[in-house]
Amino acid sequence: MDVVVLAGGYGGARLAATLSEHLAGAGGADHGGHLTVIANVADDVRLHDLYISPDLDTIMYTLGGGLDTERGWGRRDEAFRTNEELALYGVPTWFGLGDRDLATHLVRSQMRRAGYSLTQVTAALCRRWGLEEAGVTLLPVTDDRVETHVVMQTDAGPEAVHFQEWWIRHGAQPRPQEFVQVGLSDARPSREAIAAIQQADLIVLAPSNPVVSIGPILAVPGVSQAIVESPAPVVGVSPIISGRPLRGMADTCLNAIGVDVSAEGVASHYGAAREGGLLDTWIIDTADAGQQAAVTASGIDCVVTGTVMDSPAVRAGLAAAILAQVRS
Ligand code: GDP
Ligand code: CA
After folding, report:
1. Fewer CB under 10 Å: which end of the chain, C or N?
2. Which atom of ligand 1 lies nearest, measured to the CA of 246?
């Protein structure tokens, strides 16, 4: 069974871990069950001459057991001494760079400068975390540079900044007018990612931010088309529960692109597969059971179950609901 997950950082990593646990628990990893995680790279940023890939790292650390699960990013048992030293030199330190985390960025940056692609670097980094042994392949959606920039409203008028600058430095406070993926039109999708989509028995849209995580994956030329043309069913999990994201700023992002901040709103945004959109099935939280009829009426099968991946029971139930969609 080949399962492909499209994922941003925190929500994507949690779903990838949930599915990987379940595939392994069902003997999947030993019996040919395989998970390919196709990750967003549009949050990537270059700082201090380092190549930083926050979503790839969040997924890798989560699957490898190295994530700080409280913070939701970076390494556990982390210290920030290097950042403190940088601050004393007057260097901007709004982007949190942990000392342990820094090692990942140093290896990635050295390999990138030596000419290895982001796909190759990611595979090398993942070796340390034992992902292949766990039956998981992590792939950046593209080896090319694509960056989300936010056109934000300021007192001085609109100003475009890198996504990380809007999100971390400005605390997502200035109202976003537009999200633009710079570099998108020239980007080519990863050959490995397209092959995984073509061979998949099931394609899953993680409950990641639809605008700045899943959006930039789908927008890489060729990716959406490969998903639509794949015979594999497409199932998504709603990141919105009771009209709110569990964490992060998906509500602000959805508002900016005119999508209703609800499980149903995000389903319509992705669209029904039978009408040229992406989704065969949409999984919504029990808290939103009232929206099931509306989603079904839009031509998308709708499954209601617990989706807050905090307890083993909910994770098992969610994984079972997703894997039940595998093409027969
Ligand atoms: P980021 O790149 O770290 O911002 O993370 P993602 O884009 O992958 O995920 C952010 C989204 O994940 C938020 O909108 C959350 O609502 C959603 N999310 C996180 N954990 C869960 C969960 O346990 N269940 C559901 N349904 N959504 C979740
Ligand atoms: Ca992200």
Report:
1. C
2. 16
